[in-house]
Design brief:
Layout: E1 2-7, E2 15-16, E3 20-22, E4 25-27, H1 35-43, E5 48-53, E6 58-60, H2 61-72, E7 77-79, E8 86-91, E9 95-99, H3 101-108, E10 114-118, E11 123-125, E12 130-136, E13 140-142, H4 143-153, E14 159-163, E15 168-175, H5 181-196, E16 201-209, H6 212-224, E17 229-233, H7 244-251, E18 255-259, E19 270-274, E20 277-281, H8 293-302, H9 309-313, E21 343-349, E22 364-365, E23 368-369, H10 370-379, E24 385-390, H11 394-400, E25 407-410, H12 418-426, E26 435-440, H13 448-457, E27 466-471, E28 474-475, E29 479-482, H14 486-489, H15 499-504, E30 509-513, H16 526-533
Parallel strand pairs: 15-16, 15-17, 17-20, 21-24, 21-26, 24-25, 27-30
Antiparallel strand pairs: 1-5, 2-5, 3-4, 6-13, 7-8, 8-12, 9-11, 9-14, 10-12, 18-19, 19-20, 22-23, 26-29, 27-28, 27-29
Helix pairs in contact: 2-4, 6-7
Length: 536
């Protein structure tokens, strides 16, 4: 990649290295300079510009990041669109992040332009939580490095999320004189909460004397009752493979696989098996809700992963849990982990179609009503919900959307203009929506990929609170708004929509360049409809 001051004559197709603000011009870092941009810069008095110019064989940052993300991501993950060389990977389900540490290291060693950052291996995640991010260091990557990264992932993905299996758990507690009932109840409560955090349930409990035969009977009973995980909390800590709890496992017909672990607290954990059901002899710290070695083994079992003795013996690095004062309690975080933005889509479909002379949204294009094309694009994207605002001929519009998973709301005052439809939709936003994507029902060439690219660009903390699509520097629709703007949008009047707010909050607006002009094309007239259909 060629980088540095470039004569304007060579700058078309180059990527702007630094933002430029000149009289009448405002170009952001990362903009791919078009011929029109170069002409405008020359008119502003510039003869050179600091930019990056890809060389033969280079892969542009967004394309490289998308290829890398597709290669490394496995099951249980959703992949965002690429933006500024970044692709985020989010958990599609609650479960355990499984990471091939060795191959991630090898990938990051391929070339400095390619980076993959992940959560630590075997981190519990919620659906929607960020698990990894791919970042291509600006502004392009060598094609051979990208190909090598794909080859590295060819045997299988480098990371995936193993979903919680919904284990039915049986708990055995042994009793000795002097053991207070409150301790037993505390153990039940801590166990039930711990299991709930990994999608498991406490199906049954047995309390028996601290004797091998009694433990064996209780384990057999719970196994026969269909429990898929067995836990034994002894009244006295396990001190040897031949102690009461492991002896009970063996007497029940099971086997002891491993005793002890290099994790503190949690050293005295025992791993066994009864038939195909794992059995854990719990360390004393398991009676507490604080993170301990039991949690590390439980997480894997709850996600359906096999746990062996060598697996436990490799848990030493990072296993000194008692000396990490900032480590959160199970299921408690000081701050919420990064997650996919919750974006609600509003499709405005209430207008009178005055210029068309009939309801354009019902016009047939390739066998599909115009409004359905806009709705289908939203449904195929990464938005969390789709709400359609109806008004004019609303019964017919509702019929055109039959069978689609959308919420439909009426704009009673739709004849007052676009703002009335917008406000009706905004009042119906889901309470948990981070932002709202406003789509126009008469723009059938907006694709799901364009919507996903807007969502990928959305980052209010980084100053990208309003994301506007553009094609060759011309702004279009749909527009993605952070929820903070909803109060202002609810005060709009007339037929102008929220366009005035773009100027008011220009410092928070991000233009997202699109590969085609679909974000500029609406259908307002019979001529536009004929052109869309490919007619004269």
């Amino acid at each position: 990649m060629r980088f540095g001051p470039l004569p304007l004559a060579d700058a078309a197709g180059a990527v702007l290295a630094h933002s430029l603000k000149l009289a009448g011009l405002s170009f952001r870092k990362g903009r791919v300079l078009s011929g029109e941009d170069v002409t405008a810069l020359a008119a502003a008095g510039l003869d050179t510009v600091v930019a990056a110019l890809p060389e033969p064989g280079d892969v542009a940052e967004d394309a490289a990041a998308a290829r890398l993300a597709r290669a490394v991501a496995g099951s249980g993950l959703t992949v965002s669109a690429a933006f500024t060389g970044r692709v985020n990977l989010f958990a599609a389900v609650a479960g355990l992040a499984v990471v091939d540490r060795d191959r991630v290291d090898r990938l990051n060693l391929l070339h400095e332009s390619l980076t993959l950052a992940t959560l630590p291996a075997h981190t519990p995640v919620e659906a929607g939580q960020m698990v990894a991010t791919v970042k291509v260091i600006p502004f392009a990557a060598p094609g051979d490095a990208v190909t090598a990264a794909e080859a590295l992932a060819a045997p299988g993905p480098l990371l995936h999320v193993a979903p919680w299996q919904g284990l039915r758990t049986g708990l055995v507690q042994t009793l000795l004189p002097g053991l207070k009932p409150a301790v037993l109840e505390k153990t039940v409560a801590a166990t039930r909460d711990r299991l709930a955090g990994v999608g498991a349930t406490l199906a049954a409990e047995r309390r028996v004397p601290h004797e091998g035969a009694a433990v064996a009977t209780a384990l057999t009973d719970l196994h026969d009752a269909g429990c898929t995980l067995l836990l034994v909390a002894g009244a006295s800590a396990i001190t040897d493979r031949r102690d009461v709890v492991p002896a009970g496992i063996v007497e029940a017909g099971g086997e002891v696989l491993h005793f002890g672990m290099p994790v503190d607290p949690g050293n005295l954990l025992l791993l066994g098996r009864l038939g195909d059901v794992p059995v854990l002899g719990l360390p004393g710290c398991a009676r507490s809700p604080r993170l301990n070695g039991f949690d590390w083994v439980l997480h894997r079992l709850a996600a359906g992963l096999e746990v062996t003795g060598p697996d436990i013996m490799r848990m030493g690095v990072g296993g000194l849990l008692s000396e990490i004062p900032t480590r959160p309690l199970p299921r408690a975080q000081a701050t919420a982990p990064p997650r996919a933005p919750r974006i609600a889509a509003l499709v405005l479909a209430a207008g009178l179609s005055r210029r068309m002379g009939r309801n354009k949204l019902l016009a047939d294009v390739g066998g599909v009503p115009l409004v359905a094309r806009a709705v289908d694009a939203a449904l195929a994207s990464q938005v969390r919900s789709v709400t359609v605002v109806v008004g004019h001929q609303q019964d017919a519009v509702r019929d055109a959307l039959t069978g689609r998973a959308v919420r439909i709301v009426e704009a009673a005052e739709h004849a007052a203009g676009l703002s009335a439809s917008l406000k009706a939709g905004l009042r119906a936003l889901p309470d948990d929506a981070d932002g709202v994507l406003v789509l126009l029902g008469d723009m059938p060439r907006v694709e799901a990929a364009a919507i996903d690219r807007l969502i990928a660009a959305y980052a209010p903390a980084e100053g990208r609170a309003v994301c506007v699509p553009a094609f060759r520097s011309r702004r279009g629709n749909p527009v993605l708004w952070d929820r903070r703007f909803v109060p202002e949008m609810l005060e709009l009047i007339g037929d102008t929509g929220a366009k005035a707010l773009l100027d008011r909050h220009a410092d928070l607006v991000c233009e997202v360049e699109m590969p085609d002009d679909g974000v500029l094309v609406d259908v307002d007239t019979p001529e536009a409809l004929a052109a869309l259909r490919g007619g004269p």
